[in-house]
């Protein structure tokens, strides 16, 4: 089976071919303003390669479910499943190499971002034996990998940035080839865009986007105006999977999707102004009273063809019926996993959401069945493990945790390090240990941390003229000299 597909033709009429095997190793970035033909390009690429490789489409606008009609993609309505079910579906998709469209059109923007992030993370965290090659297409990628913080919550932004960075930076070894499409390069995170080696640049008008596109294509900046002049459906291509020199390509026709709407003018209705006013305002109150309730969310689409084939795999992931779960053993293993994470190099410098996702992933890999700590409980237990409070007796641990009750979760780790050192009679805390617990290498952040803890009345800091700091914890007696 050939790995070449034709996506269109160049200005001379010669077919423009895409090497799918090379694409799997080098990734693709597509850019084009609204109306440039970006979605048409993605559809052409997906249709032509549908029989060659597994395809996973993240679709925030509901543009690609029609692929199911002709090519057998399974459409997953993101609004119909819980977060846990979305992750389970992603694991099944990798195991059984199903081509799917994750339709996020029924969700609000922040819910779209969280759903896609959890789905991508689960794809990325699949077991090694399921690392089959797959194209992962993310449309409107600027939503999921924004260049700057937007209106979504910070933990959501971190979650989606981690997922997109993993896809584009580390996905290749796991068989995942990222294809990201964006309306504006300036709005897409640079570390995500920089990982692509293939580019298809459509029409764009803003200077900042034209200059970035020209730089990626290896064109001189004075040639950037060429990008502004591209017609709908025309793209400049470059990359090892398509061409070694910039090439103008007109994208070929597609077999699925809605017919394009007419872009021309349409005659207005021939209605007198007074009649039109009557049509708009007559009996308006009765329409309000008879307004139907909001439509119920659509039912989950049938995925029998997947569920039937994976029944045995699903049984392996749950406790056998009739056999009780040893909750004590599960709780012990959870504590061990948290302790193992705390000892890993560099883990403290990751975001709290990334740490929690790593913890959940390891629990899933070991198929631990039982109650899991939520995000807040995990952060406190992780801070305790990083500070190695288990070395102390239970009474002292309880006393330190009582003092730490008023400490914010993101400051708990460094406070516990300080408290443990204060009990041991150490007036000068190991700043390396403090920096590791706080997840920073900045002396300035350490100083601000201590100032904040002192303003809260949690520590007392004295600094001499030589710069040495003495730190004490009110209410905690130091260990008496023996």
From TrEMBL:
Ranges for domain AAA+ ATPase: 24-323
Protein known as: DUF87 domain-containing protein
Keywords annotated in UniProt: ATP-binding, Nucleotide-binding
InterPro entries: AAA+_ATPase, ATPase_Atu1862_pred, HerA-like, HerA_central, P-loop_NTPase
GO molecular function, one term: ATP binding
Organismal lineage: Bacteria, Pseudomonadati, Pseudomonadota, Alphaproteobacteria, Sphingomonadales
Gene3D superfamilies: P-loop containing nucleotide triphosphate hydrolases
SUPFAM superfamilies in the record: P-loop containing nucleoside triphosphate hydrolases
């Amino acid at each position: 089976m050939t790995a070449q597909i034709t996506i269109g033709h160049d200005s001379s009429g010669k077919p423009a071919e895409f090497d799918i095997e090379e694409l799997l190793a080098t990734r693709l970035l597509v850019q084009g303003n609204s109306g440039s033909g970006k979605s048409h390009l993605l559809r052409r690429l997906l249709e032509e390669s549908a029989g060659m490789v597994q395809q996973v489409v993240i679709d925030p606008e509901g543009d690609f479910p029609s692929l199911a009609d002709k090519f057998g993609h399974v459409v997953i309505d993101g609004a119909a499943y819980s977060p846990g079910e979305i992750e389970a579906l992603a694991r099944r998709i990798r195991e059984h190499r199903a081509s799917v469209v994750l339709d996020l059109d029924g969700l609000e923007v922040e819910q779209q971002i969280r759903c896609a992030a959890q789905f991508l993370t689960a794809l990325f965290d699949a077991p090694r034996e399921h690392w089959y090659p797959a194209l992962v297409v993310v449309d409107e990628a600027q939503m999921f990998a924004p260049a700057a913080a937007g209106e979504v919550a910070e933990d959501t932004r971190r979650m989606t940035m981690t997922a997109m960075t993993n896809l584009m930076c580390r996905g290749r070894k796991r068989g995942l080839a990222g294809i990201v499409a964006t309306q504006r390069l300036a709005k897409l995170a640079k570390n995500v865009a920089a990982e692509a080696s293939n580019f298809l640049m459509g029409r764009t008008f803003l200077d900042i986007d034209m200059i970035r596109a020209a730089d990626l294509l290896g064109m001189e900046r004075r040639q950037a105006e060429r990008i502004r002049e591209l017609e709908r459906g025309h793209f400049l291509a470059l990359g090892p999977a398509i061409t070694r020199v910039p090439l103008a390509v007109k994208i070929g026709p597609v077999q699925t999707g809605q017919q394009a709407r007419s872009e021309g003018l349409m005659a207005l209705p021939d209605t007198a102004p007074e009649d039109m006013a009557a049509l708009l305002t007559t009996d308006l109150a009765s329409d309000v009273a008879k307004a139907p309730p909001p439509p119920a969310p659509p039912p989950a689409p049938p995925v029998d063809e997947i569920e039937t084939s994976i029944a045995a795999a699903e049984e392996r992931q749950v406790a056998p019926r009739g056999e009780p779960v040893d909750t004590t053993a599960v709780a012990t293993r959870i504590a061990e996993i948290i302790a193992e994470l705390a000892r890993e190099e560099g883990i403290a410098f990751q975001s709290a959401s990334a740490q929690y996702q790593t913890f959940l992933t390891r629990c899933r890999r070991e198929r631990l069945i039982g109650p899991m700590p939520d995000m807040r409980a995990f952060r406190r237990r992780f801070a305790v493990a990083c500070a190695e409070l288990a070395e102390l007796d239970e009474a002292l641990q309880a006393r330190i945790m009582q003092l730490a009750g008023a400490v914010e979760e993101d400051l708990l780790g460094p406070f516990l390090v300080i408290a443990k050192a204060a009990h041991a009679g150490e007036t000068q805390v190991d700043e390396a240990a403090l920096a590791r617990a706080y997840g920073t290498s900045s002396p300035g952040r350490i100083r601000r941390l201590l100032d904040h803890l002192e303003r809260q009345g949690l520590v007392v800091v004295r600094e001499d003229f030589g710069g040495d700091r003495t730190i004490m914890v009110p209410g905690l007696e130091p260990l008496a000299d023996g």
